[in-house]
Predict the structure.
Amino acid sequence: MILAKTLSISFGCITDGSRSISTLFRPVVGVQLTNAPTYLKKSFGTYELSDYTEADWMVELYINGVLVDFKQADAAGFFSFDVPLMYGSTNINLRYYGPYGEEQIVERQFEIPFVFMPKNEFEYSLNGGLVEDGENTVFAHARMNYGLTRSISLGGGVEYLSSLEDNPLIPFLNTAVRLPGNMFFSAEYAHNVGVKGDFSYTSPSNLRLELKYVWSEPQSYH
């Protein structure tokens, strides 16, 4: 298991960093403890890209328009690259060159949502404080995420909001799965709150399809 090498403690407004389950209409003033990096995550890891072309053709790998590597296919036309992937969108171009001036270009796109964790990496965030609503409402939120494999991230935690008289304690679970064919699925379940899911697909021609699902538990108001 890989733990983040930095430990960050901050004081002040913590609402944005908590990704709360509850809807908060006022900022929360308190403390946050986390091992998550303070900078924006960029590198997700590498992906082995392998394919076949004509025998002995040269293949150039471009990432976001920049030439990164080139190789010559073997006698069977096989080649492979270790492609660095970034969070967000990564545009991959493969340019094939034959011995007699032939040229082919293939474009691919990879989407890595920020909810994904690299394999064996563990990240946590603990938040607590008072909501500035004039009623001394106590808010606390603990969230953990773990990269089970390169394609599956698991997480969960618990949230507490004292103004919710019936169910002030809300445990929750979340997962993110990278499926074959550049498809992604993520979901979150919060006890007595509801379920939300997100499915996305990006085709080789950069056509993007995204489906969202939200179901909420019926709430009773007093």
Observations:
- The two ends are 46 Å apart (CA to CA).
- The CA atoms of residues 56 and 157 lie 53 Å apart.
- The domain at 43-112 is CATH 2.60.40.10 (Immunoglobulin-like).
- The chain has two domains: 2-39+115-216, 43-112.
